[in-house]
């Protein structure tokens, strides 16, 4: 068995949502470096165009909470590149609001972006893959979908990520016999802008690091390596899996 070639993604087309920065940008970089043709999707048009230019990949601006826009992305990528083989559904937000103070808008914004848009992407990108008879979908969940991390209040975020893990398992069971694999990655505290904002709160920072056995935040590139694995033939017997990369946070 040629193990090095199993991680190659030559002649495959990948969509990365939330690809303008953080984990999405690093995943787009890694997928490109492993041979994939990459299309970045992001709601921030300026950052998305800059990211795509830096990487030499395509960019589509879109609000993923609009299911018609997601359907259009699937059609555009299929028409432009002939296939859609990998989808990293990564766009997400967090609002740290005490639950008793959360407005309907606070709750719905997180659920719409973190869960509903992930379903729309799975559905529309999955349709293309099911027609092809092959494909790999990777959804960004979180360790917060497994445990309620402390001390920040974020019930909507936690609920949305738990739902992404179950959505992933549900779709994996439905589509396994038709050649489409669906997995998720669950990062812990990763050095993205979202985490850096939280780290600015000294009490949160101290607790986060104390509760992480490795005693540090992860790097976006460390998540990207898992995305490449799940996108590639190296993970050909993986579906319905949730890969946790949290520096040990959920181990105790």
Topology:
Layout: H1 3-6, E1 13-17, H2 22-33, E2 37-42, H3 45-55, E3 58-61, H4 67-81, E4 86-89, H5 104-132, E5 135-140, H6 155-175, E6 180-187, H7 193-199, H8 202-210, H9 220-231, E7 242-245
Parallel strand pairs: 1-2, 1-4, 2-3, 4-5, 5-6, 6-7
Helix pairs in contact: 2-9, 4-5, 5-6
Task: Describe the protein in words.
The protein is an alpha/beta fold and 252 residues long. Helices cover 48% and strands 15% of the residues. It contains nine helices and seven strands; from the N terminus they run αβαβαβαβαβαβαααβ. The chain has a seven-stranded parallel sheet with strand order 3-2-1-4-5-6-7, sandwiched between helices. The N and C termini lie far apart (37 Å). The model has no long low-confidence stretch (mean pLDDT 96).
Mean pLDDT, nearest integer?
96
Q: Let me know the number of strands.
A: 7
Query: Helices and strands, in N-to-C order?
Result: HEHEHEHEHEHEHHHE
List the strand order in the largest sheet.
3-2-1-4-5-6-7
**Most strands sheet:** 7 strands, parallel
Structural class: alpha/beta
Stretches where pLDDT falls below 50 for ≥5 residues? none
Strand content: 5-15%
Measured between the Cα atoms of the first and last residue, the distance is 37 Å
- Number of H/I helices: 9
**Shape descriptor:** globular
- Fraction of helical residues: 40-55%
**Radius of gyration, whole Å:** 17 Å
């Amino acid at each position: 068995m040629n193990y090095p070639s199993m991680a190659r993604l030559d002649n495959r087309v990948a969509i990365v949502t939330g690809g303008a920065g953080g984990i999405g940008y690093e995943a787009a970089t890694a997928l490109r470096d492993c041979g994939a043709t990459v299309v970045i999707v992001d709601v921030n048009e300026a950052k998305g165009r800059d990211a795509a230019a830096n990487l030499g990949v395509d960019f589509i601006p879109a609000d993923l909470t609009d299911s018609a826009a997601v359907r259009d992305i699937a059609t555009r990528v299929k028409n432009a590149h002939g296939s859609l083989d990998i989808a990293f559904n990564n766009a997400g937000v967090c609002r740290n609001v005490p639950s008793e103070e959360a407005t309907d808008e606070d709750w719905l914004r997180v659920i719409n972006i973190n869960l509903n848009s992930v379903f729309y992407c799975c559905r529309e990108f999955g349709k293309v893959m099911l027609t092809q008879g092959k494909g790999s979908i990777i959804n960004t969940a979180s360790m917060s979908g497994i445990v309620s991390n402390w001390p920040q209040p974020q019930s909507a975020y936690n609920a949305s990520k738990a739902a992404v893990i179950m959505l992933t398992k549900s779709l994996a069971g439905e589509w396994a016999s038709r050649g489409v694999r669906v997995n998720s990655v669950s990062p812990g505290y990763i050095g993205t802008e979202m985490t850096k904002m939280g780290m600015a709160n000294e009490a949160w920072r101290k607790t986060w690091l104390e509760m992480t056995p490795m005693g540090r935040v992860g790097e976006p590139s460390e998540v990207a390596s898992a995305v490449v694995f799940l996108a590639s033939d190296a993970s050909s017997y993986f579906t319905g899996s949730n890969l946790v990369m949290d520096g040990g946070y959920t181990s105790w």
